[in-house]
Design goal:
The chain is α/β, with parallel strands linked by helices. The protein has 16 helices and 33 strands. A hairpin with a 4-residue loop joins strand 26 and strand 27. It binds MU-OXO-diiron (FEO).
Length: 614
């Protein structure tokens, strides 16, 4: 049964996923599978962009037939001849013998090499175009991204870049098609980096050439041959490609990779990592005999400083470390600061040999503080570890250090410091069935411009929180400085479980998602579709894409400070002889000699710690 995905009104994904493959290209583990993307453009002429791997060609052919809907297949654009994208070619030609292949001369030669076929192709060169009716396709060569015959295609009508291997990722698509349908940074960025570093990492200069060509285009969408289609937030992936292709680190920190037979080399590496952490420098550690090399190579593309620690083995570098360093040099790692720790029970040679292996790489700054240990690190050698840590620390300006409390330091935490943060005040509304509800929140921020995306923190005890969890929809009414205290009371000091917060309202204003909003003392409303939820104990943070916004007035937004200074009722003096405690949050007064430790403010639900004697 076919499984196609609509990309645009004229473009359909007809690829397939493979979750049974253990090793991509026979060398890269793909625990999350891999997608082989193929796209069908339907116009006056139909165009298929690439085919798929042999393992999934049955599903692919079903998909192509479905997407064609009886139209003939006019063109097959072959952008890349690696068999994970071209293996379906011969079967496709049998089923669609009239199809015209569009490719570079190098691709035509490779078709002969792989399939022993003499193809009468439409051979295209840099800048050639093909008009298919409504669409015009522009062909651009991209040699060595990832093979020499590679080209990419730009559809200037819909402004789509078909990018071949560029911007691809490991990982099956799992029903999603677009990068903005998933939490890409959290769940897919590591596999995208691993794909880049290992598949095209060696060819940074060529990737830069492709980025230069792309920068001259208006691109609304990127369709790669693996992984998700990009239709939003394109700068995020383009920026990563710019960094990776220039071999610039993404983060300041130290990647420590070690090869240890009996744990003594590991021990030295761990002590170094500990010393660096004490200097507030981020570290990651990998045992090269356990972690696949492709992950460590990806990490080397991520971090600014690299430390390699290896025991000496058969008078050389330990086997797994030797393989890693060869691989790293082959992937052209550059622009890093590197240090070594060697171990040897009778003749430690691994340090010098590791250095020799990496000296061929460009712009590596190799620290002279190599630590050499004999069987195990001795306390007399700790100074050498410290010297290496100190040498690394000189590269870390204070602003690049982790903000963390130093172990052993007498840290003080004054919660009142939090009051110095600026907050707003908002009515967050939601709906479940016929029940409308809302609550006051003070943390809501815009986090990205493209797409328009906000995050809102909500107390999990609130009914509004439960409603948003179920529906995935929310409205945020941004209150203004004219807000009366009664509106804060209405939404903030009661529970929607036992009251209808809208009962007294003389309005029933709703956005297109059906949710109510507060039209009075509000300057704008943002309707959000939740894309992610993070749980932080008492509160959760919803991240939502803005699906509708309503501007209501130009009044200034209400800040929490303005509320404290001008709206919140001032505590009343205690009645003669009566003691009491005032809630610092909402002003509620508890009368009594002592405040129970488990007291909860009936208005704002804050605990006893937020009360002060009046
Ligand atoms: Fe996905 Fe270079 O092939």
């Amino acid at each position: 049964m076919q499984c196609v995905k609509k990309i645009t009104s004229d473009l359909v994904w007809v690829g397939a996923n493979d979750r049974r493959l253990a090793m991509f290209e026979g060398v890269y583990s793909v625990p999350n599978g891999v997608s082989y993307n193929s796209y069908l453009l339907t116009d006056e002429k139909t165009v298929l962009f690439d085919t798929v791997d042999k393992a999934v060609q049955g599903r692919f052919l079903e998909n192509v037939a479905e997407a064609l809907k009886g139209q003939p297949l006019d063109y097959l654009v072959i952008q890349h001849m690696e068999p994970d994208h071209s293996a379906g070619l011969t079967e496709l030609l049998l089923r669609y013998p009239g199809v015209k292949i569009v490719c570079t001369a190098r691709t035509q030669a490779m078709i002969k090499q792989f399939f022993d076929l003499d193809i009468d192709a439409l051979v295209v060169n840099e800048g050639d175009t093909l008009n298919t009716g409504k669409h015009t396709l522009h062909f651009m060569t991209a040699p060595m991204v990832h093979w020499p015959e590679v080209m990419v295609t730009y559809d200037s009508t819909d402004k789509i870049l078909f990018s071949a291997d560029a911007f691809g990722s490991f990982g099956a698509l799992n029903g999603a098609m677009f990068a903005d349908e998933v939490n890409f940074d959290k769940d897919y960025m590591d596999e995208t980096r691993r794909y880049y570093a290992n598949i095209v990492g060696k060819y940074g200069t060529q990737v830069q050439s492709l980025l230069d060509k792309a920068s001259a285009l208006t691109i609304n969408m990127i369709c790669p041959l693996h992984g998700f289609v990009w239709r939003n937030n394109l700068p995020s992936i383009l920026t990563k490609y710019s960094l990776w292709s220039r071999y610039q680190p993404e983060e300041h920190g130290v990647m420590i990779a070690y090869a240890s037979v009996y744990g003594n080399t590991e021990n030295a590496a761990e002590i170094l990592s500990s010393r660096l952490r004490e200097k507030r420098i981020k570290t990651v550690m990998y045992d090269v005999s356990v972690t696949p090399a492709s992950e460590i190579i990806a990490a080397a593309f991520r971090w600014s400083h690299l430390v390699f620690a290896s025991t000496t083995y058969n008078a050389g570098i330990f086997v797994s470390m030797e393989a890693l360093l060869s691989d790293l040099a082959a992937h052209n790692i550059q622009n890093r600061t590197v240090a070594f720790i060697e171990n040897g029970s009778w003749a430690a040679t691994s340090g010098g040999l590791m250095r020799k292996k990496l000296e061929q790489c460009k712009n590596l700054r190799i620290l002279n503080q190599t630590v050499s240990i004999t069987s195990s690190l001795k306390s007399s050698q700790l100074a050498k570890i410290d010297a290496m840590a100190a040498a690394i620390k000189t590269d870390f300006p204070d602003m690049m250090l982790m903000m963390q409390t130093m172990p052993g330091a007498a840290a003080s935490v004054d919660p009142l410091a939090m009051f110095k943060l600026s907050y707003g005040l908002f009515v967050l509304t939601a709906k479940e069935g016929t029940k409308d509800n809302g609550c006051i929140v003070n943390v809501a921020v815009q986090i990205t411009e493209s797409p328009l995306r906000i995050s809102v923190a909500v107390n999990k005890a609130n009914l509004t929180y439960e409603m948003i969890r179920k529906s995935g929809d929310l409205n945020l009414s941004i209150l203004t400085e004219s807000t009366p205290f009664r509106l804060i009371e209405q939404f903030g000091f009661h529970s929607g479980r036992d009251t209808d917060k809208f009962a007294e309202c003389g309005y029933d204003c709703r956005t297109i998602n059906g949710l109510r909003y507060v039209p009075e003392h509000t300057n704008s409303v943002i309707s959000g579709k939740v894309i992610d939820v993070y749980d932080y104990g008492t509160h959760s943070v919803f991240t939502a894409d803005a699906v509708e916004t309503v501007m209501l007035s130009s009044e200034p937004s209400l800040t929490y400070q303005f509320y404290l200074d001008h709206i919140k009722p001032k505590p009343q003096p205690a009645k003669e002889g009566k003691k009491g405690f005032v809630c610092k949050i909402c002003g509620y007064v508890y009368e009594g000699e002592t405040l129970p430790a488990d007291f909860i403010c009936p208005w704002c639900k804050h605990g006893a710690k937020d009360f002060e004697p009046r």
